[in-house]
Prior knowledge:
It is a single chain. The chain is mainly α. 55% of the residues lie in helices and 8% in strands. The chain has 4 helices and 2 strands; from the N terminus they run ααααββ. It has a two-stranded antiparallel ribbon with strand order 1-2. The radius of gyration is 13 Å and the shape is elongated. The two termini are 18 Å apart.
Amino acid sequence: xxxxxxxxxxxxxxxxxxxxxxxxxxxxxxxxxxxxxxxxxxxxxxxxxxxxxxxxxxxxxxxxxxxxxxxxx
Length: 73
């Protein structure tokens, strides 16, 4: 899954750069950029991003019936 655009959009809306996000995560900007560009961010990474930015991370699968199955991390 390619997350580069959603992560860039998140940073733009949140008013921080990818480098600042990396700093808050305790990672180098290069390491975070590589994970984002390669699409290798894990659910834990996404949860960490939510935590360091004061946001809420939710992950679910929506069934064809419209019912959502929440995925707990």
